[in-house]
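Appendix B, Record 12. Input sequence as logged:
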Amino acid sequence: MNKLVLILAFMASITCFAQTHQPRTFLLVHGAWSGGWDYAQVETILRAKGDKVYRPTLTGLGERVHLANPTINLTTFISDIVNVIKFEDLHNVILVGHSFGGMVISGVAEQLPDRISKLIYLDAMVPNDGESAQMVCGDLWNSLMASHVKDGFMEYPFGPVRSIPPMDVAQSLKTFTEPLSLRNPLVKTIPTTFIVMTKNGQSQAANDQMGLVKARQRHWQIASLEGGHYAMREQPEQLVKKLEEVLK
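Logged structural output:
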């Protein structure tokens, strides 16, 4: 009986929070080889709080894999997210990019800085003006990723892939090789946070070069979360707590 009372009390507290909570708009951008499916559990948690959540899949990936072709480039991915903002008429967007998604949200902020209230780079790539994802990867590209290029696509290079959905799929090579032009001064006015994933309190040097080092140079807010690179898959509850923390 006591357990039932506790459950009912918890449900009531969630309902009360959702009723008094000012809805926020989250636009969650996944990383390379992935899809919007990666954020499904995060969406469930945020929506239970009363927030609006969008987790689109970039062209040719996830459930849109039937559209995959080697002409898809980084501009295509940026347009995917820009058009969500435009066609859904979104404002005050909390734009989150995971891993390769840092390239995408950087390009989106360049075009629509007035629609974005917060940028969050989740263990993500941070490009400079004129850099491609290949350039941001640095030594990792030649030591590992280049050997996984086949027929205009980059296959998932970090181990075996699940044979049933949800799963990672090959991604057009041009999304990695097209450079970004980042020159809009208004982007610097957007509050920006970099969340670095750590193991025993330490980040990975290779990942640091792709994102954390530049984030520190730009004096962004830095937050850390203990765990693996795919926080949304492995610990969605803790990721949401970290998002709440950096948004305060």
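The longest helix spans residues 2-20.
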